[in-house]
């Protein structure tokens, strides 16, 4: 996984639009910090919350109506 991501958390851009709630951006930032600090368990727990919530956002309507930033959240 390290080989696929930027070398530092500062290089990982989380530029998401207004459709993504601030609380989700905060969780993404925490997961990023945990990952780069080598805190795997905390990173995995936080990532599971992010995945579950973003999955719900992706599946609440038709695909074309889902904001692209929610697709990015799920992909991150």
Descriptive labels:
76 residues, mainly alpha, 3 helices, globular
How would you concisely characterize the structure shown here?
GO terms for molecular function: methyltransferase activity. The chain has one domain. The protein is 55% helix and 0% strand.
Describe what you observe in this structure.
GO terms for molecular function: methyltransferase activity. It comes from Macaca mulatta (Rhesus macaque). Keywords: Methyltransferase, Transferase. There is one protein chain. This protein has 76 residues and is mostly helical. The chain has helices at 22-36, 40-58, 68-75. Helix 2 packs antiparallel against helix 3.
* Beta strand %: under 5%
Structural class: mainly alpha
Largest sheet: none
Distance between the termini: 12 Å
List low-pLDDT spans: none
Order of helices and strands: HHH
Q: How much helix is in the residues?
A: 55-70%
Alpha carbon gyration radius: 13 Å
Number of strands: 0
Average pLDDT works out at 88
Separate helix tally: 3
Spatial shape: globular
Number of domains: 1
Write the layout of secondary structure elements.
Elements: H1 22-36, H2 40-58, H3 68-75
Helix pairs in contact: 1-2, 2-3
